[in-house]
Specification:
By secondary structure, the chain is of the alpha+beta class. The protein has nine helices and 13 strands.
């Protein structure tokens, strides 16, 4: 099971907050941990980008703790990473004194490990952790507020539920390159499987061969004909062109139609020649809405 969002959210955090304010009855959210309650209350009145201004100390505390957890995982070498600073961090951790105690204090106490951790944080976008390791008081920016909001939302969402009863009558329902293959309702939520067949083509550009493709980003919003919203807990492309979405809660009593809003596409162009394999990519804001009528 996977998610398209590194913060644990399957859709942009703004979409999830919108759904939480109009959530269908029967939802079973997890309790907010004490360290996130201040941020949770603030998010009822402000956007994620405003959170760093509204609650700067709480944002720093929560995001820094998240970056330290990521550092701890990276030091084990069990989680792959695409930049050389991660390999240097693993080597430094293996040759460190392996002192016991709180991670940040241990990293500060060992110059080699501290330098490797600082390089890793800078390369990986851990700005607050990098400031902390430099001895500078971290000041949260808008992106830190957004990350804090993602952590609050991730703590609230229940685990996806597998299985359920098929409620899609009459087979697949589609719109262009998207086909709804299955809607299965379980005890606490439902699954939506959508077959995506975006175009892929080989073209000649300036005398060179290039591959142009669109990749579907999955659903961005699920609602019903009664005005209720549903949480998209996770998405998982299974490698066959079908994207499974786990949603919560189960369809509301009396709901007859689900509205499935596409999150758009990601466009890519890759040059295929011996000189260069460079490519470009961009988000394509073409959204479609599918409607699914539920069986009794």
């Amino acid at each position: 099971m996977g998610s398209t969002d590194p913060g644990g959210c399957a859709v942009p955090v703004e979409n999830t907050l919108w759904a939480l304010r109009r959530l269908a009855p029967g939802a079973a959210l997890r309790p907010v941990p004490p360290e996130l309650r201040e941020l949770g209350r603030a998010l009822r009145e402000c956007s994620p980008s405003e959170l760093a201004v509204r609650c700067p100390a709480a944002v720093v505390s929560v995001v820094l703790a998240s970056q330290l957890r990521a550092l701890d995982r990276a030091m084990t070498g069990l989680f792959g990473s695409g930049f050389p600073e991660a390999a240097r961090l693993v080597r430094a951790a293996r040759f460190s004194g392996r002192r016991r105690g709180e991670l940040l204090a241990r990293v500060r106490a060992e110059p080699g490990l501290r330098a490797a951790a600082l390089g890793w944080a800078e390369a990986g976008g851990g700005r607050l952790l990098a400031d902390e390791l430099r001895g500078v008081s971290p000041v949260p920016a808008a992106e830190d507020g957004r990350r804090a909001a993602e952590l609050v939302v991730a703590a609230l969402l229940p685990r996806p539920e597998a299985g359920g009863r098929e409620v899609l009558p009459g087979g697949p329902r589609g719109s262009g390159s998207l086909d709804v293959r299955s809607v299965r309702v379980g005890e606490r939520g439902f699954q939506v499987d959508i077959q995506a067949d975006p175009p892929v083509e080989l073209v000649h550009r300036s005398g060179r061969l290039a591959l142009r493709a669109l990749w579907w980003n999955g659903l961005g919003r699920v609602s019903d004909d009664l005005g209720h919203e549903y949480l998209i807990l996770a998405k998982d492309p299974n490698g066959t062109g079908t994207v499974r979405h786990w949603c919560h809660p189960r369809p509301a009593p009396g709901a007859r139609v689900l509205r499935l809003e596409s999150a758009g596409y990601r466009g890519e162009c890759l040059r295929l020649d011996a000189v260069s394999d460079a490519g470009t990519s961009a988000e394509v804001l073409v959204k479609r809405e599918l409607t699914v009528r539920l069986s009794a």
